[in-house]
């Protein structure tokens, strides 16, 4: 008799537990420092102005992320932990949604949970969970988009609903920060490529075949094209109500052009600026905070986990190889998202760039590493996979004081963690 097919157990409960543990840790000292730090000095005034309806500030960025920060202030008061709670919740959603996306893409239980551990201990997500900036919100919405797209492919009976949610999330990601723009076309293009590959030119009008049987290309274009653009436009409504003359004089497209010019106008050199080559090798850090605050010397350093950021590079190469030669969609997806999101910054006309622009590529890199660790485990090298996860957690624990604004021993305490001069 033939054996029944293997149905891997969905680790949804463990994903939720990991996400909740991450949230609890991110909330430690969430209100410290008690004054705005780093780019909070730009986004908090903009959020307060939106809340009061007095002005539309920080016009080089879209509005949704600042609307979310304003909601936190409106609900919980204008206090430090309330400024940052939306970022903590968004980062938690990003962690959970990223794990769910990898699960639906791969059906690999170990890879899914390993990805959660790597993301939680990868520094990027934790640091941005504790600062009132736009990045965690944008990343959460991109992760939600990936989750819903992968779920639509895996469970086509709910595909229409998943694609509609993906379209709305994608529109809100674009409305948070334009960094998402490079990935915006990927879901629609992937749908088109999969349908044409499976059914030929008949796929242009038919409803059969992958990636989501029953959904025609025209409907996919609605959910993954028209809906994101509509949602993006609607998030500008508060700005229109505050300053109708701006929109009346320029029009919606004129406002977008103004924002683009403002993005490209920042050309003054900055001591923390870096290039994509620096990001890939984890060479250039950013001190979000290093000063006396709330009765102690404190610091918040943005750098990638030194172990996993470097191990992820050969994992990416492996994913690209098996994706191309073995047609593994999960591995190919991780490599493609990394290449597109990093390639955007290689060709972007933004003259001054910073390490936090590596946030999205780093998440794809860690997905590739999780898939590679699962492969090592399947080939009998489980001890190596577990060693990498343990090493990632150990480095996170070592760097925790300067990731979480903990009290430090003195003005020169930072030297304990400065393994290379370029992190100073």
Which class best fits the helix and strand makeup?
Answer: mainly alpha
Q: Enumerate the strands of the largest sheet in spatial order, edge to edge or round the barrel.
A: 1-2
**Quantity of strands, as a count:** 2
Mean pLDDT, all residues: 92
Number of domains: 1
Overall geometry: globular
Distance separating the two termini: 65 Å
The count of helical stretches stands at 17
Radius of gyration: 22 Å
Textual characterization of the structure:
This protein has 424 residues and is mainly α. The chain has one domain (12-235, 276-423). Helix content is 62%, strand content 4%. It is built from 17 helices and 2 strands. The protein has helices at 12-26, 40-52, 64-76, 80-106, 109-120, 124-128, 135-154, 159-174, 186-199, 217-234, 237-242, 244-264, 276-280, 306-325, 329-347, 359-378, 382-399; strands spanning 286-293, 296-302. It has a two-stranded antiparallel ribbon. A hairpin with a 2-residue loop joins strand 1 and strand 2. Helix 1 packs parallel to helix 5. The model has no long low-confidence stretch (mean pLDDT 92).
Characteristic key phrases:
mainly alpha, 424 residues, 17 helices, two-stranded antiparallel sheet
Topology, pairings included?
Blueprint: H1 12-26, H2 40-52, H3 64-76, H4 80-106, H5 109-120, H6 124-128, H7 135-154, H8 159-174, H9 186-199, H10 217-234, H11 237-242, H12 244-264, H13 276-280, E1 286-293, E2 296-302, H14 306-325, H15 329-347, H16 359-378, H17 382-399
Antiparallel strand pairs: 1-2
Helix pairs in contact: 1-4, 1-5, 2-3, 3-4, 4-5, 4-7, 5-16, 7-8, 8-10, 9-10, 14-15, 14-16, 15-16, 16-17
């Amino acid at each position: 008799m033939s054996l029944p097919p293997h149905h891997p157990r969905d680790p949804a409960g463990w994903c939720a537990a990991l996400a909740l543990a991450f949230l609890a840790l991110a909330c430690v000292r969430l209100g410290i420092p008690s004054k705005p730090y780093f780019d909070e000095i730009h986004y908090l005034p903009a959020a307060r102005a939106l809340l009061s309806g007095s002005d539309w500030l920080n016009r080089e960025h879209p509005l949704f992320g600042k609307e979310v920060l304003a909601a936190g202030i409106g609900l919980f008061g204008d206090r430090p932990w309330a400024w940052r709670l939306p970022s903590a919740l968004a980062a938690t959603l990003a962690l959970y949604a990223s794990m769910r996306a990898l699960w639906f893409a791969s059906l690999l239980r170990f890879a899914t949970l390993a990805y959660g551990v790597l993301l939680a201990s990868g520094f990027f997500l934790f640091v941005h969970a504790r600062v009132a900036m736009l990045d965690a919100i944008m990343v959460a919405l991109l992760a939600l988009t990936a989750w819903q797209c992968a779920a639509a492919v895996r469970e086509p009976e709910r595909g229409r609903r998943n694609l509609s949610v993906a379209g709305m999330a994608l529109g809100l990601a674009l409305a948070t920060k334009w960094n998402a723009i490079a990935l915006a076309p990927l879901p629609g293009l992937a749908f088109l490529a999969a349908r044409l590959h499976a059914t030929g030119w008949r796929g242009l009008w038919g409803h059969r075949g992958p990636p989501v049987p029953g959904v025609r290309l025209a409907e996919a274009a609605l959910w993954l094209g028209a809906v994101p653009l509509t949602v993006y436009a609607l998030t500008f409504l508060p700005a229109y109500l505050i300053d109708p003359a701006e929109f009346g004089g320029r029009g919606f497209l004129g406002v977008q052009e103004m924002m683009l010019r403002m993005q490209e106008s920042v050309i003054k050199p900055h001591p923390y600026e870096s290039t994509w080559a620096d990001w890939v090798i984890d060479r250039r850090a950013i001190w979000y905070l290093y000063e006396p605050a709330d009765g102690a010397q404190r610091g918040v350093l943005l750098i990638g986990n030194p172990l996993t950021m470097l191990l992820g590079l050969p994992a990416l190469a492996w994913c690209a190889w098996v994706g191309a030669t073995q047609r593994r969609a999960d591995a190919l997806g991780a490599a493609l998202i990394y290449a597109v999101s990093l390639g955007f910054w290689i060709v972007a006309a933004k003259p001054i760039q910073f390490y936090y622009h590596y946030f999205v590529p780093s998440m794809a890199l860690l997905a590739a590493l999780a898939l590679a660790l699962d492969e090592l485990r399947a080939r009998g090298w489980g001890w190596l996979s577990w060693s990498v996860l343990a090493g990632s957690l150990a480095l996170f624990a070592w760097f925790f004081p300067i990731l979480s604004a903990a009290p430090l021993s003195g003005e020169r305490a930072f030297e304990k963690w400065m393994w290379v001069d370029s992190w100073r």
